[in-house]
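Troubleshooting: if your tokenizer reports a length mismatch, compare against these two reference records.
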Amino acid sequence: MPSKNIDICCIYSIEDYATLRAPLIDPLQIPFGISYVATILKNNGYNVDLLVLTHDSDLEVVMTDYAKENYPFLFCLTSVASEFPFICKVCKIIKKRFPSTYIAVGGSHTSLFPDYSIKQPHIDCVCIGEGELAMLALASSIKQNVRITSINNLWIKDKLSGVVEKNKTANFLEDLDSLPFIDRQMWQPWISNINSPYSILVGRGCPYRCSYCSNHKLSGVADGRYLRYRSPDNVIAEIKYILISNPSAESIYFEVETLGFDHKYDEDFLKKLRFYNFSLRKPLSFGCNLTLTKEISQSEALLEKFKAANFKFLNIGLESGSERIRREVLNRPYYSNESIIRFCASAKKFNIEIHMYVLLGIPGENYLDFKETIDCVRKCDPGKVSLSIYYPYPGTTLYDAVRKKKYLKTDIAEVRLERKLPRLDLPDFSKKEIIKDYILFPYFVFKGNTPLYKISLLVIKNLLNTNYKLNRIYRLLTENIFFRKKKLKLIRLFFGD
């Protein structure tokens, strides 16, 4: 029997990766859900290990090699809908190499589809809702060799009878300050480029109910307040903690669905952040998500406060330049094209760069809608555009509509090149047209305003994104340590992340 020097192994999987050895492109890709679980387990005395797997990982080899030195009594895995089939493969091989170990799977997919998830033959329990306390209680039961039962948020399968114990789901954790700062050190071996901005979780939940996002369904898996924020003092304490380990850190991204919703919180947060930041010898720069509403789009006062706190960029979601699509299909908060254009112009006055999310191939979209998107983005003139092709995620209301209209033939779409290839057979926007417009999008948006060679490089990047083999070559080149050491930064400069 191998040495049991590892108590618990947490597993995270990723489809679009940097390298097999270090799959995460940069620290911004560290997932917070399983990070908090792993950190709490570690802080409570368990020897916790981490594995990051890709769809190209040789799972048999990875698990065989891992079993030579480790035999965890618990594996904790997490999954979104698109990763669940792969996670099931991982669980099968875990049971093959570690037949007596216990397997728990959490994440948004098990929260939304617990009945389906617990039926998978190699999963012992699934977690619904937040998993920090549930995994701690589960680890304690296994460690003490007592019956695993009556643990909130867990559906537990009896190994002999297959009967499932469906425990109640506890309320959403209201006091986020009670969570520890995540252990970033355990992620470092899995990150290709560690010299990148840090990210800090500021809140959980979302106040909006966009049809293509699972937040509107996840808000109903437990009682209590779904939208929660950490206190500004607690966030600043984590910034201090980061600077102790890395005094050369320059920027931090605040991970939150949106600021701007709770005006009292925003004012307190930005005020305290400003005072703290400018007490530093070298102030940090910041960025975050900001969901536009009619009120926010007209508020230069909010932009002024972001500027005072040294925010260098804001991520905003246009998604579609068609107000009809935003209103009737995506269920976005209301903002007119005119208001978002004015907001982007105001941000420029404060020297805040706008990074814009755009979605293509939306159900109900036609080419005229796409032309409206091009026109709106051109007028906004954002510093960066994150372009995606709509991917139908189970558990969203838009997915249900897509299935009802038979735009999608399978339960879960192919995940290779997720959000980089069209999955739907739309009557008014063909897959061929969507791919062409995805590739040429930089030309449509930036022509006349950006040098042609830069546009050409962005077009080439989008072309590479639509071909798996070419995409892998691109990733290997941009993440190769030789290129970084030689300071050949042109690829990253123009291609981005």
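Reference record two:
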Amino acid sequence: MTTKTITITEDAYTSITSLKSEEESFSNLFIRLAREKSGAEKYLGILKGDVHRARIKTERIREDISRDFKKRENVLFRHQRSA
């Protein structure tokens, strides 16, 4: 089997080590992580019902949050713009 050497930071090593079981090699850990579903993929298909309505509702929520953020930004940073 061919091997490759990689260089990672100490922080990366600590993070990766915390994900590895004692009997798991780093190679097996990387293979396992690569095969795991991403955060979004884990939840695809779990919603029951009308996907179109859920998408529209999600878009409305995003728009509401964006409007709210703009209002808060204007209140917080108005004095900086007028200077």
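Descriptive notes for reference record two:
- The chain has four helices and no strands.
- The radius of gyration is 23 Å.
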